[in-house]
Structure formats: C-alpha cells, structure tokens
Design goal:
By secondary structure, the protein is α/β, with parallel strands linked by helices. It is 29% helix and 16% strand. β2 and β3 form a beta hairpin.
Length: 235
C-alpha cells in the first residue's frame, strides 16, 4: 500500500526532496527477507547478509516505481525542473528563484513555444519572463490584396521591468525571440534599452493605414498558427 514520502533516492545515496503531497510507491521493508524459507531466517548472519542486497534492491526499485514523477513539472525535484527547462532553451533559469516561479517559467515557456514568432507568443514570453504586463505592437497583419502597407517588418515591445533578469541578460533573451529580418525596439518603461541594427536611425511607424486582424490563442495552444510578427500576408 502506498504512503506519502518526502524524497526520491538520488545517485549519491541521499534523498531528493519532492513537493508536499506527492505519493510514492512503498513496499514492505523486509520484502526480500520475506521471500526466504523460514529455516534461513533463523540464522542471524544470513539475515544480515541478505539485508545488504535488500537495501540496494530497494533503492533501484524505488527509482523504477517513481520514474514517472521525474518529468512532471508540478512535482519534479527543483534540479530536474531546471534540467527539463534546458530541453526547450531555458538555460538561463536562475536556481535562486523561488521554486514556484521556476516551475511556472518552465511550464509557461513550453506552451509559448507553439506561438513563437507571433505577436501573441512574444507578448506571452515577455509577460512570463518579467512577471508583469507587456505590450507588443508590430507591422504584421492580414489585409485585402493591394491594401497592405509597404513597411510591415517591425515590432515594438514595452515592459515595466526586466523581472528576475539583469537588463543585459534580458536583452539577449529577447533578441533570440525576434526574427532576423524584423526591425525591433525594446522599451523598459520610458527607456529604449535595445534596438536592432536595422532599426538604428530608422524610427518604427507609429501606426499603420489599416488595422491588422488580431489573432488570440485558444485556451490550450495546440500548434503554431496566427500571423508571424513582421510577416505580410495578402489575400
């Protein structure tokens, strides 16, 4: 019968703390000794000798019993959460951040990946990273044939703060999210902290001649759809 426990066995032999409420499989402490013939149990030496193998076997079996918890963001050990984040490019995740924040960043980043390259995905990424509101204005949209403006490859981003990152690190993180051909500006409050080389000396448009169609994501993103930032589509 399973019962709550506080840790998973680690390779070092020490337990790895899990989140409260996680229930892990637990077997009888004498599961190996209980399989021996009764006559062998009368020998103290033999019992102690078999107990050594029982202890080693218990560690291996606990790994197998609880392997399904390791990739679960909601219950995985903190170190595993950061390791899972590295699978989707979250290599800059600070281990000193609160546990709940680390889990929220990794889980949110996984969902945002399906919208990468769109204004919706960029806004979600900025909000997730800074922990505050973000505004994204871009030249992408959908227009009737012949009505598209001549300048669509631009995006302006505005946030209240850089969140848990230092400003230079935040800028580097944002740069990786912007398509190479798009002119971009990043504002923190009333300061422009970064402008792409293409935007230097060329101010971004204040508005466009027609309003692009806003595309909002569903509750559970299932794939990359919607208009990419800085991409023109005519119909």
């Amino acid at each position: 019968m399973s019962q709550p426990v506080a840790s998973l066995p680690a390779a070092s032999g020490r337990g790895v703390d899990l989140r409260p409420g996680v229930r892990l499989a637990r077997r009888s402490p004498d599961w190996l000794l209980n399989q021996l013939p009764v006559g062998m149990l009368s020998s103290d030496f033999f019992v102690r000798f078999v107990s050594l193998f029982q202890e080693l076997g218990t560690t291996l079996l606990e790994y197998a019993d609880n392997i399904d918890h390791l990739p679960d963001i909601s219950v995985a050990p903190d170190a595993v959460v950061r390791w899972l984040g590295s699978w989707i490019g979250m290599n800059a995740l600070d281990p000193s951040l609160p546990d709940e924040l680390q889990r929220r960043i990794v889980a949110g980043s996984a969902q945002t990946l399906t919208w990468r390259g769109t204004a919706v995905g960029l806004r979600r990424f900025l909000e997730l990273t800074t922990g505050g509101p973000a505004e994204v204005t871009d030249g992408g949209g959908v227009w009737r044939e012949g009505d598209a403006p001549s300048d669509t490859a631009w995006v302006r981003m505005s946030v209240e703060s850089t969140g848990w990152l230092l400003e230079p690190d935040f800028v580097e993180l944002v740069r990786d999210e912007i398509p190479a051909h798009v002119r971009a500006e990043l504002w923190v409050q009333d300061r422009c902290v970064w402008a792409s080389a293409a935007a230097d000396g060329a101010p971004l448009p204040v508005g466009t001649g027609s309003l692009p169609i806003a595309v909002e994501p569903p509750e559970e993103p299932t794939g990359p759809s919607g208009q990419a930032a800085g991409t023109e589509t005519s119909s």
